[in-house]
Please model this.
Amino acid sequence: MYKPTKRVMMLGVTSAAAFFALCAGLDVAAGQVYDSSNVGIANRVEEYIVEGNDADPVSTLTNGIVKASDAFTPGNKEEAVTEEVAETEEVVNKASLTDAKVYPQFQDRAVVTADSKVNIRTDASTDAEVIGVLERGGVCLVKEIGDEWTKIASGTCEGYIANMYLAYGDDAGEWSDANGVARTATVNTATLKVREGKDENSDCVTLIPEGEQYYVYSVGDEWTEVCVDDDIRGFVKSEYVDVKYENPRAVSVEEQAEADRLAKEKADQEWLAYLAEQEALAQQQAAEQPAETQVADATVESQQLADQAPEQQAVEQPAAEQPAAEQPAAEQPAQQEVATEATTQAPTTQQVTAAPAGSTGVDLVNYAMQFIGNPYVWGGTSLTNGADCSGFVLSIYAQFGYSLPHSAAAQSGYGVEVSMSDLQPGDLLFYSNGGGIGHVAIYAGGGMVVHASNKRDGIKTSSYNYRTPVKAVRILGQ
Model:
């Protein structure tokens, strides 16, 4: 309670006490009618206190219960008001741009609100060296806010970003909400029900365990909407999940250079793999041609070479045989541009390890693991360019000689059903969406599964009970 408020209460007590004391001293008879002589007794008490000769009239009137120092006097009323204003100003001064009452995750933090990434500089000047970048929606720790620049720390970078590109504290949280920054919900209770609607009487579509993370669609005071897999989108009680924003962190100049180098190296490998694939395809087509056609083609090719001018052969042949690594540096950018264009046209660019000759569950799981991170595509069966849950299983098992339908529910009817306590790598786990089987995953061992989950996460691993499994079957060896 503020001090002025306490003092007002004390004044009231003093006035009341003085009033009753005077009444007792005057020995007013019951039923006496008040007249103008005793109206306004409180004012007279105050006059007695202020103008009387008693050293402590308040103490005298209250028999020592209250002292004058506890009450207002003409000399300290103004002082008390001034003190209240000072306390209010102190509270205001303590408020900060980075305060986050509604979005505590953004306490003392800021996010980038620019249309694209912004530079992080060594000093508060556009002339200062750039040491890194922070993407739109990226988060940073605020160390100091100046008139035009803010000193920040994010990732491995510590430097300055112009204030005009930042939102702070609760404003950063509001901006993240309004601009679709991804959020995840981590379950903080042993087992949590996912319901169809925002109602405890709504049907439970699955159970999710403590510690698992799920993509968040919306957050309310009572209910949070989450995505479990592409076939399940439901509601959980907000109090049983910890929601976190997935704002990007800064990338330093050195980290960006390394990422660019790795990306170029991967693109080169994919291009070479594509060329090798095309060459192998051409050789296969040539081998399948009738012998007469091959002889005719060889004759035509020989005639074409013979018709070429000797000097033309001398120019063209070395260029064709020269290794790419030995070509002049000036020619490299043009070749890279061509390679990039051809890579986008190639049907398959990921370098894939062939399925092993064995047919154990471990072999199957090891083969499946190399596709983690590839996209989820509803109705797809491509392990590199996109598959849904049953399409992923279908394509993996096809590499080991098994033909399965493109449906999780249909796949659950194959093989031999096994108990959850007897799972082995390669077994299939099936999950209900509340109305039947809606998802399938491959058991990878160690309590984990590998599966094509949803558009956001693609092919990934999860704990086997990240949602409630309803059936397990074994196909390998059956």
Summary: The CA atoms of residues 4 and 77 lie 9 Å apart. The first strand starts at residue 109 and ends at 112. The chain has a mean pLDDT of 78.
